[in-house]
Structure formats: structure tokens, C-alpha cells
Task: inverse folding
């Protein structure tokens, strides 16, 4: 669509691909250049994220493609093949890139250049970006970029993407690289290898195949059971497989043992290039600080203690720090409601706006402070390098349930939101590990559950202190957060013993040196995720809220109710007689609204399912709240707000949902929500798969309906049983 | 051959923190072997043992100027010689 507008500039439109190792700041650089306005989707047929941004380099409009972080360009699966296909213009939904930008971590140049040396063999205009330049300097790594540029034959620039330093140079270097002639890639392999490539090329053409790119021929020879031969030789197999086997044998007999030869020759070449260009000063202060820190943080006793303390601190802290902000939002909501009620007469539209829209969206937004606090903690831990240590510390434990330390990060992220968590399972190379991690990730207590916990805990759990500082409310919150993780252990174990049996996959992981977290990176991540949460709250939750409002409003006749409301609002003077009249009116109002909601569609549905939820200690209102929350669990607050405020349980002095819940009663007058009921609600929400978006992401990632349906079923049964036990045992103990 | 493979030691046999050893070979052509080599564990390269995770596994090494974590089962794939 945009193309039709830019007909005149179509000739100058460039496509540029970004590639780099994980943790090189590639995405930060990508965001800095594209202004954070990337479109995120999936490459067709595979589970690889496609991130495309727009920008301008030297007055030429540019399409940027952010390829997934990788240590090498030796595709072993269809997913890994995508990057090679994009770079070689074989991916039909992306234009062939005119240039490739290879982003490396300057403080870990040697290992990072391995990918660069493969990218070089693509024979495309290439720019090498030495990112995290500031970090390398503080770590005593001295690099001469000019000398490196001379040796490598490509433009070399230095950036510190998280400080937006050197960003403009990237565009200039890319345009310069495109406009100048590409120097042929260095020939790292012995002559025999290039002869075999020539032979392979001829062999394919002789059999009627299309001519194949040099890099793919190289990969076909070097990658035993790789994805390139699969991708190229669809018509030629099994002949091709046989031919490649023989070719590799010929190479081995001439001293090129595959696959070891590639890594050995490339690393030798890298060392030659860096000789005299890169020096490490011995007075590396930060490294020794990092070493000392590591001694403590990965210590067999202190490390675990610190880890547990950190996790506990996170939840205690977000709990107390967010309070003032929550109050501010609540006051603002009350202010807006007051304004609307001042402008409008009681009626259907006002009811929709106040009880549907404002109440619904407001009671979700109110939890933004906690969510921001939680995401900030996760972003800081990731950026300072602690997350990799957490995986290192947790690996042995995770292997007990058949997973690896790499599953820790996706599962930890799922505490914020299962959607990025499920997507983060992409770092797990092993399919079985990835599947199990994905299927238990929704059990982790995501931020959308936080509102339910907070509401229930603030309202029903006493804020008594143990030892003078340990708040009972914090303890219950911690217990709820732990519940999903604890339950996930036997579930993962069972899944590993049944559906996903197999050998233990590799655990080869980089432990980056500790650094101070970058405020910009932390801010960007928090902003991104908070925005996503609010957008979901704004669209999905809004529509569900209005639907629930409609179900609870119709088909009853509200004329009398509105008359009473108009009456109440018209009375302003205060005298004992008028106050008495007000009280009578209010009583009639509550009674009437109770009748109305009971007669509504929602009330009818609720009463029908009450026998099912009664063993959990719930009445039909809570049951309806849970039912309405299956598309998105955030909705529970909005739904309950709508149900309880329309139900006339609102305390006039404090129009919050908390007081409405405390005032809620069974028909016999006993309080509806006791501590066992509050716990049963929380346990249900902790374990239930009430998130359509997560299930959709699982579908997309597994490319099958089977797994989202499986996840939904097992979690719902689990949630029901656990909530049942919680209520029954809780009642016994309390009784 | 039988004799030689008995004499060969692997990275998993290194127990003393701070020991530096030299890589002789990484065995196999599977995903684990390839990843080990891609991460820079290649012939003649020197590796230092930095420490063990609290439960004894995985193991932290220093190679090519960065820190790498391997499980003992993976470290056992890397044949080494003492210096």
C-alpha cells in the first residue's frame, strides 16, 4: 500500500538485514534506528519472528529486517534456514537485502566474529558494527577499528546503541558499502574444498537443478544433516544425500574433517585478523569486580540464598511501592465518574459509560503500577547479566524435571506474561524441551493474575506483621506466585515421561560479565510491555466489559431504578428528615438492582452454573466472573466490578470494588467472600488457562490446535480441583 | 585406538578450579558437538575452569576471553591435554 505512494523513490528503496549473536544489543540498535516502530509477525510456515522496520539512510528509504539472534549461520532446521533464505533473497515475502549489518559485542569480539566470517561468505555488501563499545572500553578491551576495517575489507563502525552513540554512522556506512565494490570473501578453506564446491555445483546443474548460491553449496558440504541440502535438493534427494556423503569422505581423506574443519579454520582466521588489532589491558577493573561478584552470586550456598532473597524481595517491594500510585489512579477514576454523573441524567447510556466502560477499563489500568514495577525488575535482572546466572544456578534443578536452565528464562518471563514467555522458548533448541516449557509456561503467575491476587489480598487478608516486618499479605502473594511454579514441576515431569520422551538436550550458554543495567534498555522494555498490557486492556477487555454489561443490563426494565437515582441525585439539602428519605431510597435502590441483575441474561446464566461452582465456595456472581474471564483473565476485575456495582452492593462512602466485595452476602445474609473463598478464587486464577492470547501464541508456535486445546483442558481441570481442595480444606481448618 | 581413548582426558575430568588445559578434539558431528565448536572450543585452544554451579553442575569455563557454561555431560565431549 505504501509502495504505490512512493513510486518516484522506488529505485532508492533499500532493504537491509540485521544479524548478530544473542545479547549483542542488536534489537536495541534496531529500535534506535527504526524509531521503535517495527512491525512484528511470523515468517510463513515456520516459528521464526519477522521484525521489519522503516528508516532513512542518506535520503533513501530503507526497510530493515531484524533476523533472530544466532551464534552461527549453519542452519540445522527449517527455522534456522530462514535467516539464510532472507539473506540470499530466497524468502519470497521479503525483498532481497542489498546489504547486511552484522552486529557484534565489542567486549567479546573473537567469538562474535565467527558469525561475521560466515556472513562474509554470502558476498553481500556488509557493515560490521562493533556495538557495546563503551562497555568494551571499561572492560579494558582496546580495538583499533580502522586497522580492523583494513583487514576485514568491510566498513567497521563503533556504536553504543543503549546510549544512542554512533547510530547515524550505521546508515552512512551501509550506503557507502552498497555504493562501493564488494571485496570477495577471504578463502579460508584449502583448494580441495573449493574444488568440491565447483563439482557439487556442476553435479546439481547436470541433474537439471537451478544454479545454487556459493554459500548454500558451502553449507551443504559442511553441515552434516543440515537444512540447506533439504531446502535445495528437494527433487534431488536421496541422490544428493549420497553424493554429499561421498564428497565429505573425499574431503576428510585430504585433511578436511567435517564439521571440525570449519570452526578451526574460521577461528584461526579470526585470530589472525585480531592480532595486533585487539589488546586487553591487564588493569581490567570491572572484570575483577565481576569475578568477585560471581564468586558470591554463584556460590553453592550464598548464591542460592541470594537468588531466593531476590525473588522474595521483588514481590514484597512491588507490593508496597505501588500503593500510592494505585490510590492516585483510583482517585482519578472517581473524579471522571463524578464528572460523567454530573453531566448525564440516570439512564442506559450513563450506565453503559460508568458501569461498563469507565469501571471496566479503570479497574484494569489501576494495576499498571505493579506491572511496571515487576517488568522493571525483570528487565534490570536481564540487562545486568544476572538472568544467565539464574539459569546456571537453576540448571541442575531444572534437569530434575527434565528441563534445562534455558527453560528458566522463558518461565521467569512468564511471571510477567506467558505470551513473551512462550515466545522466548525459541531460545531452547531442543523441540521436546521447548514444548514442555511452552506447555507449563501459562502456569506461571503472569501479571494479569496480579490484579486478582491484589484485590483479594488487599480486601480479605489481614495486614498483620510477623517478626515486625514480614507482612502476611506479602506472604500470601508470594505463595500465590509460587503455586504455579510448584505445580509446574510434576506437570513438566509427567509431560517429559509421556508425550516428550527423549535424550537430554545440550546446555551450552554464555555467562556475560556483570554490568550496570542501561536505563534506556530497561525503560524501553518496561514501556513496551506496559503498552502491550494497556492496549490489550483497552481493546479486548473493553469489548468483554461492554458485553458483560449488556448481559447484566438486559432484558430487565430499569425505568423505576433510574427514577430513584434521579430522585437521590436531586436531593441536595441536608436535614434529618431528608436523610431518612435518602436512606429509604437507597435501600429500595439496592433491592431493585439486585432483582434486576438476577433477572438479567447474566444472572440467568450464573444461576444455571451455580451448582458447579458452589463446591468452590463461590456464588453465581463469582462463577460468572470466572466464566467471563476465560478470554482474558484481567476481565475478572472489570466483570466483578460491573456485577457488584450493578448488584447494588456498593458502599456509598467508598465506591471501590473492595468494599463492594466485603459487603457482598449470600441470600441468607452470611458474608459471601471469607478467607477460604478468597483463597479458592486466587488458586483458581493461579492455575486456570484464562488467556485466549496465550493459547493463540501456543497455536502459532506449535503450528497445531492440539497443544492449545491440551493446555486449556489440563489447566482448567487442575484449577477446578485445586480450588475445590483449597476451599474445602480451608473451611475445615477455619471451622 | 582403544588404549589412546583411555588415556585421553576430557574437560569433565578437570576438578581443580583455576586449572588451564588445552583442547585436543571435540568428538562427533551432532548438534552438541557443533555448538561446542561454534562457541570456540576448537583444537589447540586453551580453556580455564572457573567453577561449578551450586549442585556441582553445570561447570563454568573461560574460553576465548569469555565465560561459557557447560554441563558435565557436554564437557565430557571435549578431549583435552594438561599443560
Result:
Amino acid at each position: 500500500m505504501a509502495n504505490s505512494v512512493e513510486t518516484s523513490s522506488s529505485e532508492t528503496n533499500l532493504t537491509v538485514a540485521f544479524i548478530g549473536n544473542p545479547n549483542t544489543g542488536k534489537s536495541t540498535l534496531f529500535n534506535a534506528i527504526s524509531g521503535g516502530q517495527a512491525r512484528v509477525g511470523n515468517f510463513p510456515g515456520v516459528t521464526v519472528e519477522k521484525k521489519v522496520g522503516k528508516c532513512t539512510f542518506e535520503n533513501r528509504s530503507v526497510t530493515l529486517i531484524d533476523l533472530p539472534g544466532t551464534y552461527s549461520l549453519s542452519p540445522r532446521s527449517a527455522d534456522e534456514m530462514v535467516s539464510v533464505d532472507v539473506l540470499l533473497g530466497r524468502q519470497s515475502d521479503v525483498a532481497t537485502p542489498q546489504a547486511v549489518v552484522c552486529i557484534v559485542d565489542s567486549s567479546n569480539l573473537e567469538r562474535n566474529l565467527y558469525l561475521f566470517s560466515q556472513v562474509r561468505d554470502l558476498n553481500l555488501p556488509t557493515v560490521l558494527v562493533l556495538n557495546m563499545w563503551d562497555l568494551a572500553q571499561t572492560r579494558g578491551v582496546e580495538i583499533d577499528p580502522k586497522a580492523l576495517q583494513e583487514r576485514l575489507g568491510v566498513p567497521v563502525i563503533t556504536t553504543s546503541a543503549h546510549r544512542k552513540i554512533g547510530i547515524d554512522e550505521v546508515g552512512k556506512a551501509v550506503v557507502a558499502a552498497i555504493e562501493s565494490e564488494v571485496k570477495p570473501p577471504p578463502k579460508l578453506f584449502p583448494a580441495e574444498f573449493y574444488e568440491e564446491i565447483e563439482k557439487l555445483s556442476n553435479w546439481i546443474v547436470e541433474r537439471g537443478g537451478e544454479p545454487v548460491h556459493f554459500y548454500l553449496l558451502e553449507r551443504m558440504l559442511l553441515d552434516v544433516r543440515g537444512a540447506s541440502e533439504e531446502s535445495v535438493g528437494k527433487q534431488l534427494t536421496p541422490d544428493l544425500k549420497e553424493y554429499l556423503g561421498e564428497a565429505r569422505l573425499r574431503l576428510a581423506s585430504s585433511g578436511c574433517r567435517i564439521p571440525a574443519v570449519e570452526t578451526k579454520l574460521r577461528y584461526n582466521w579470526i585470530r589472525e585478523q585480531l592480532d595486533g588489532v585487539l589488546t586487553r589491558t591487564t588493569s581490567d577493573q570491572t572484570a575483577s569486580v565481576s569475578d568477585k561478584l560471581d564468586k558470591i552470586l554463584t556460590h553453592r550456598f550464598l548464591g542460592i540464598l541470594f537468588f531466593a532473597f531476590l525473588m522474595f524481595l521483588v514481590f514484597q517491594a512491588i507490593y508496597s511501592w505501588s500503593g500510592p500510585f494505585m490510590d492516585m489512579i483510583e482517585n482519578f477514576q472517581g473524579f471522571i465518574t463524578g464528572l460523567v454523573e454530573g453531566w448525564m441524567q440516570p439512564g442506559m447510556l450513563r450506565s453503559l459509560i460508568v458501569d461498563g466502560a469507565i469501571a471496566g477499563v479503570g479497574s484494569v489500568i489501576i494495576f499498571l503500577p505493579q506491572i511496571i514495577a515487576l517488568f522493571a525488575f525483570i528487565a534490570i535482572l536481564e540487562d545486568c547479566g544476572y538472568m544467565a546466572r539464574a539459569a546456571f544456578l537453576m540448571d541442575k534443578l531444572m534437569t530434575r524435571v527434565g528441563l534445562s536452565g534455558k527453560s528458566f528464562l522463558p518461565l521467569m518471563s512468564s511471571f510477567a506474561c506467558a505470551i513473551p514467555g512462550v515466545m522466548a522458548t525459541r531460545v531452547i533448541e531442543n523441540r521436546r524441551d521447548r514444548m514442555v516449557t511452552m506447555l507449563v509456561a501459562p502456569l506461571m503467575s503472569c501479571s494479569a493474575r496480579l490484579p486478582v491476587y491484589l484485590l483479594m489480598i488487599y480486601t480479605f487478608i489481614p495486614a498483620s506483621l510477623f517478626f515486625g516486618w514480614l507482612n502476611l499479605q506479602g506472604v500470601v502473594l508470594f505463595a500465590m506466585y509460587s503455586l504455579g511454579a510448584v505445580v509446574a514441576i510434576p506437570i513438566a515431569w509427567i509431560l517429559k515421561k509421556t508425550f516428550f520422551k527423549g535424550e537430554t538436550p545440550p546446555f551450552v550458554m554464555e555467562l556475560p560479565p556483570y554490568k550496570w543495567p542501561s536505563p534506556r534498555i530497561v525503560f524501553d522494555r518496561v514501556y513496551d510491555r506496559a503498552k502491550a498490557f494497556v492496549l490489550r486492556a483497552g481493546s479486548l477487555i473493553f469489548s468483554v466489559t461492554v458485553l458483560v454489561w449488556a448481559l447484566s443490563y438486559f432484558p430487565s426494565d430499569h425505568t423505576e431504578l433510574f427514577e430513584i437515582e434521579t430522585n437521590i441525585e436531586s436531593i441536595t439539602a441536608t436535614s434529618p428528615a431528608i436523610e431518612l428519605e435518602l436512606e429509604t431510597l437507597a435501600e429500595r435502590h439496592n433491592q431493585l438492582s439486585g432483582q434486576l441483575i438476577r433477572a438479567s441474561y447474566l444472572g440467568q446464566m450464573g444461576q444455571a452454573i451455580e451448582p458447579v461452582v458452589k463446591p468452590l465456595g463461590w456464588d453465581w456472581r463469582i462463577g460468572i466472573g470466572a466464566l467471563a474471564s476465560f478470554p482474558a483473565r484481567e476481565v475478572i476485575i472489570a466483570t466483578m466490578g460491573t456485577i457488584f456495582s450493578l448488584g447494588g452492593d456498593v458502599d456509598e462512602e467508598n465506591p471501590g470494588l473492595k468494599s463492594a466485595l466485603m459487603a457482598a452476602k449470600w441470600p441468607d445474609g452470611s458474608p459471601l467472600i471469607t478467607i477460604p473463598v478468597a483463597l479458592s478464587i486466587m488458586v483458581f486464577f493461579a492455575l486456570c488457562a484464562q488467556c485466549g492470547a496465550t493459547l493463540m501464541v501456543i497455536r502459532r508456535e506449535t503450528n497445531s490446535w492440539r497443544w492449545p486445546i491440551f493446555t486449556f483442558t489440563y489447566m482448567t481441570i487442575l484449577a477446578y480441583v485445586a480450588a475445590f481442595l483449597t476451599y474445602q480444606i480451608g473451611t475445615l481448618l477455619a471451622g | 585406538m582403544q588404549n589412546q581413548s583411555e588415556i585421553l582426558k576430557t574437560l569433565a575430568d578437570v576438578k581443580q578450579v583455576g586449572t588451564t588445559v588445552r583442547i585436543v578434539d571435540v568428538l562427533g558431528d551432532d548438534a552438541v558437538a557443533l555448538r561446542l565448536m561454534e562457541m570456540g572450543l576448537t583444537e589447540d585452544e586453551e580453556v580455564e575452569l572457573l567453577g561449578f554451579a551450586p549442585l556441582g553442575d553445570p561447570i563454568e569455563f573461560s574460553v576465548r576471553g569469555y565465560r561459557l557454561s557447560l554441563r558435565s555431560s557436554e564437557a565430557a565431549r571435549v578431549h583435552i591435554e594438561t599443560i
User: Anything to note?
Assistant: The CA atoms of residues 59 and 349 of chain A lie 51 Å apart. The first strand of chain A starts at residue 14 and ends at 20.
